[in-house]
């Protein structure tokens, strides 16, 4: 019998050379049993260190089994949690930096808004303009025209001012026209920054008008400059012939102007007026005489009602630069 068992063991060893038989035994009934079951299940333990293979422990944990691997998988889980922790920390740092950058940007923008709104005041600008042009009594008309457009988000017509002067005061009138347009631009830009909308070009557009400019040419120039600038100065309106002057109607209409959030400052020059004559009367007499023979009085009057509502008479006697 012993020899038979030894032979069997020897044969099995030959058939399974890689199998360690020290952990197994053959029962008298030729059944193979595991000698040391714990050595093969030692990797499965509960979270509190008790052996899950223990019968009592198995019963207690049968409803809610808990088995944690203590081999390399546990190590991998630990590394994974550590890796996730590192990634989460990095993400938190990035988010904090982005928030700080956003707060800093918004604070800078808010400071800029407050500075511009504080520095640009229509009342202050008009006051400074009055101090520079001391002998001009009607400077407030400029402020009134600008205010009606600036304070309305959707104005129905553009801001329009027309300046009349003698030949001696034409340079002064040109400077005043440019500075009035610049005030409008400053105020529009202050509102644009406050509302985060598009700002204007800092300088006004300018058109030198002559008797040779055609209706089509003037229309093209007005469209071009009105789309590029917030304010446009038209110098020498009196030089236009009546047919070309009709273009002004479409750009300065009370209801259907092409560009409504704009300012147009016009100048005319004449030496034929009385010292105490009203500015609007001086302008009407000059342009009716110039345009009526070509487009008749009704058409001239229609243009004047659109361009001459805010009229100033610029007096000579100041040496100003602009």
From TrEMBL:
<feature type="transmembrane region" description="Helical">
    <location>
        <begin position="88"/>
        <end position="109"/>
    </location>
</feature>
<keyword id="KW-0325">Glycoprotein</keyword>
<dbReference type="InterPro" id="IPR008662">
    <property type="entry name" value="TOIP1/2"/>
</dbReference>
<feature type="compositionally biased region" description="Low complexity">
    <location>
        <begin position="66"/>
        <end position="77"/>
    </location>
</feature>
<dbReference type="Pfam" id="PF05609">
    <property type="entry name" value="LAP1_C"/>
</dbReference>
<dbReference type="GO" id="GO:0001671">
    <property type="term" value="F:ATPase activator activity"/>
</dbReference>
<keyword id="KW-0539">Nucleus</keyword>
<dbReference type="GO" id="GO:0005635">
    <property type="term" value="C:nuclear envelope"/>
</dbReference>
<feature type="compositionally biased region" description="Polar residues">
    <location>
        <begin position="41"/>
        <end position="50"/>
    </location>
</feature>
<keyword id="KW-1133">Transmembrane helix</keyword>
<protein>
    <submittedName>
        <fullName>DgyrCDS8337</fullName>
    </submittedName>
</protein>
<comment type="similarity">
    <text>Belongs to the TOR1AIP family.</text>
</comment>
<dbReference type="GO" id="GO:0016020">
    <property type="term" value="C:membrane"/>
</dbReference>
<feature type="compositionally biased region" description="Polar residues">
    <location>
        <begin position="1"/>
        <end position="15"/>
    </location>
</feature>
<keyword id="KW-0812">Transmembrane</keyword>
<dbReference type="InterPro" id="IPR046753">
    <property type="entry name" value="TOIP1/2_C"/>
</dbReference>
<keyword id="KW-0472">Membrane</keyword>
<dbReference type="InterPro" id="IPR038599">
    <property type="entry name" value="LAP1C-like_C_sf"/>
</dbReference>
<feature type="domain" description="Torsin-1A-interacting protein 1/2 AAA+ activator">
    <location>
        <begin position="122"/>
        <end position="271"/>
    </location>
</feature>
<feature type="region of interest" description="Disordered">
    <location>
        <begin position="1"/>
        <end position="78"/>
    </location>
</feature>
<dbReference type="GO" id="GO:0061024">
    <property type="term" value="P:membrane organization"/>
</dbReference>
<keyword id="KW-0597">Phosphoprotein</keyword>
